[in-house]
Design a protein that fits this description.
The chain is an alpha/beta fold. The chain has a domain at 103-261: 3-Layer(aba) Sandwich (Alpha/beta knot), CATH 3.40.1280. The protein has ten helices and ten strands. The chain has helices spanning 2-38, 41-55, 57-77, 80-91, 116-134, 149-158, 218-226, 235-238, 249-262, 265-272; strands spanning 103-107, 141-145, 168-170, 184-187, 203-207, 229-231, 239-240, 280-282, 287-290, 308-311. The chain has a six-stranded parallel β-sheet, with helices on both faces.
């Protein structure tokens, strides 16, 4: 009889616990819905994308395991001689690197003209240029000059390893105190001089300025003021763009690296220029061909590259 009483008392308690649990779940769900409603459309979209990415984590992990297993089976199915040759090939260096004598200088003397967030962008552009130069077929002699102010502060706080960077010269001095005047060529889109070829004995200066067109023509004026040569890349001869011909530091840097490797300005431009710039190739017959880059994708399908030929606008 005592056992029955205990059991009868336990049942209401269990029902109470279940009710509390359901109530708690309803409260959490209600709070989540309220949070979702307070988010902007863009934030909700981002949250949904993150949730989907989390839900598919295990599926991606399994796909990677399956691909690894498939490659292992394919290797094991090869004759022993072919397996040996493949392993030997993988151990060889991918390509022979031949350093260039050409110098590229990032002029960071515009620090005071930029907002802190734009200085952060310049920092990332220099990081990208350094990384690209390290793996280039013909790496250039890389200089960063006039380092100080906000840029140095950001590098010290967010990229402390910069002091250990290799194959780069970073100075607080102005480039004119490091390179002879007659060897300097300032690269600026406002210059009337078009650069047809690169002189390996020259030092080409890239303005380290992210200003969203607030200081148009400042690098050109600076070059004239200092009495040094100036030139622009032959962009208009090969490319028609929807936006101004002002490129980020790393894009100029990468274009020159690509030109040193390919020996073709056209190939260099379309290897590097971002799709958002709307770059189209200028042809000799007055037409231009749309070039689209293959974007990185997490999907298993290959990205499409679409080509379109249209009449050039005059």
């Amino acid at each position: 009889m005592a056992a029955e009483n205990v059991k009868s008392e336990a049942i209401p308690q269990q029902e109470k616990d279940n009710g509390d649990s359901e109530s708690s779940q309803r409260t959490v769900s209600s709070n989540r819905e309220a949070d979702d409603q307070s988010l902007s459309k863009r934030q909700r979209k981002k949250l949904q994308k993150q949730q989907k990415w989390e839900e598919e984590r295990e599926l991606r992990k399994q796909k990677r395991k399956d691909r690894k297993q498939q490659r292992r089976l394919e290797r094991n199915s090869q004759p022993e001689e072919e397996r040996g040759e493949a392993q030997s090939f993988r151990k060889r260096p991918r390509r022979d690197v031949t350093p260039s004598t050409l110098r590229l200088v990032v002029d960071c003397s515009f620090d005071s003209l930029m907002l802190l967030k734009d200085v952060g962008k310049l920092h990332r552009q220099i990081q990208r240029s350094y990384a690209e130069n390290r793996r280039a077929l013909h790496p250039v002699q890389f200089y960063v000059t006039s380092l100080g102010g906000q840029l140095k502060q950001i590098m010290d706080e967010k990229d402390k390893g910069w002091v250990n960077w290799k194959d780069i010269t970073i100075e607080s001095e102005h480039y004119k105190d490091i390179v002879a005047n007659e060897e300097l060529v300032y690269l600026t889109s406002d210059s009337p001089n078009v650069l047809d070829e690169l002189d390996p004995e020259k030092a080409y200066v890239i303005g380290g300025l992210v200003d969203h067109n607030h200081h148009k023509g400042i690098t050109f004026e600076k070059a004239k003021e200092l009495g040094i040569d100036h030139a622009q890349l032959p962009l208009s001869s090969f490319v028609k763009m929807n936006s101004r011909k002002v490129l980020a530091v790393n894009h100029v840097f990468e274009i020159i690296l690509a030109y040193l490797e390919k020996g073709s300005w056209k190939e260099a431009f379309f290897t590097v220029l971002p799709q958002r710039k709307g770059a189209v190739a200028v042809e000799k017959d007055g037409t231009y061909t749309q070039e689209k880059e293959a974007e990185d994708s997490d999907s298993d399908s290959d990205p499409d590259t679409q080509h379109r030929t249209e009449k050039a606008q005059t």
